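Team,

Forwarding the record for the chain on the shared tracking sheet. I've put the sequence and predicted structure together so nobody has to dig through attachments.
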Amino acid sequence: MSSHKEAPAIAKDPAADSTDLYAFVSPDAPDTVTILANYVPLQDPDGGPNFFEFGAKTAVGTAPPVGDDVLYEIHIDNTGTGIPSITYQFQFTTTILNPSTFLYNTGPITYSPTTGYSSTWNRRQTYTLTMIETDPATGCSTATRVNPPWGSGGVFACPPCNVGVRSTPNYQELSAPAVYRLPDGLTVFAGQRADGFFVDLGSIFDLGDLRPISSHQLIPGANTPGINSLADKNVHSIALQIPISSLTSNGSPLAMGANDPHAVIGVYTTARRQTVRIFNPTTGATTATGPYDQVSRLGNPLVNEVVVPMASKDYFNSQPPVKDSQFAAAVEHPELQGLLPVLYPGAFPALAAYTKPRADLVAIFATGIPGSVIGPAFGQGTYQGGKVIAEMLRLNMGIAPTSADGTQPGTSDLGLLGNDLAGFPNGRRPTDDVVTIALKAVAGATIPLVDSTYTPDPDVAVVNQGVTASPRSYQAHFPYLADPHGGFSNPPATPAYNPDPEL
C-alpha cells in the first residue's frame, strides 16, 4: 500500500497513520495547487457504533477538551534545503453533545446555513488551522491562525461520517458546507472521504505476486485481473487548495512556467503526538502532556513501505527529510530489486546483473529528477554533490495539469512512464497508479534516465498490478476524493471466498 500500516508502531495507531499524500496542479483551477493528506486507513464504512475520526481531545458539552490528540501537519519546502518554509497545522477537537447515549447520532443529521449541523449529531469534530512560515536560513518562524470566513469561534467543522441512508440522508448536502473558501484564495476541507488509492493488497504482499503476470511465477498460474482491495474503503482526508503565488519562494506567479527557478516545491506530511501519555484507571481516560514528537511521516508513496528495512521503519517515521542521507543506502540498493529475479525466474536477467547504486531511485525519491534528464525539472538538487538528500513529493507547479479523472487526452495513470509529465513522480494525482509505476521503476524501467548503457528487460513492459482507479472514488472538483461510501449500502470489497482446491 502507499503508506498504510507501513511501520510496526504506527500500525497500532491508525489515527496518526499518514496513509497517502497527493500534490498536483488543480485541473479546474490551474493557478492553484491541491494537497491531500490522508489518515486513518482501511475504514469499513459500516464500522460503528464508534465511527472513524481524526485524533483529537474530547469535550463533553461545554467542558474543556481533554485526552490525547494528534497534531497533523502539511509541510512545503520551496527553497530546496530540505527544510519546510511553509507548514499548515491542524488540531482537532471532538465534542459530545449528549454523554448519556451510546449513539453517534440520535436521529437523521441535517444541515442548515443558519444553525449549522443538527443537534441529532452527537459526536462531532472541529479543528483549528495555523500557518507557520519559517526562514530556512535562520530558523525563525511566524505563526498565523487561519480563521473561517464566518464566525464559528475561529474553528472549522468536519462533516459527519457517512453512516447510512437514515442517519446521513443527502450526504452531499452534509459534506459541501465543510469546504471553506477563504478570502486569500485558500480552500480547506477535513473529513471522511472515499479512499482513492487503488492496490491489489492480497497479491502484492504475497511475495510480490502480480495476478496479470502470474505465469511468470515459480508456481505458474492463469493470468487474471487484479482486485482493488480499497474499492469500498474510506479514509480521513485533510485537503488544501493553495494559490501558486502563495507557494513560490518569491511570492509571485511563475513567470517562466515549468522552467521558472521558483517552480518546484517539495511536500511531505507528518503526525505528532505528545511525549507523555497518562492513563487514569479511575476514570478510564487518557491524557497527554509535553512537547509533540513526530510519529508518522509521508512524502513519496511506498518509500517506508517497501524500501526502508523493518528495524528502521519507526525511526524513519520520526526523522525530518533533511536527515535522509542516513537512509540512502536502502534506496541505492533496494531489497525488492534482488527479489524480483528470484520471484520471477528468467524474467529479469539484466536487472539481476545490475550492481550499480540506483541513482534513478535516489533522484525520484530524494532529490527530484533534474531537467537535464527529462526536460522540465522535478528536482530541487542533484545526486551526489547538489543540495541535501531529502525524501519529499516534488512538484513542478509550472507544468500544466491534465484531467483529475484521467479522461483528458494525454493523461496517463502511469505519469512520467506514460509520457504524462503532470503525473507521478511530478507530484501525485489520485488516479496515478503509483504501485505499478514503482514496480516498473524498481524493475529497471527508469535506470536509462541516468545510465544510457542499461537496457531494461523486456518483461518490464508487462509489469502491472492489474488494478484501475474506481470512478466512484473521485470527483472533478475540490477536494477531488468523492464523498465516503455509506455504511448501510456498503457492498463486500471482494467476491465470495472459494477455498483452494488442495484443501
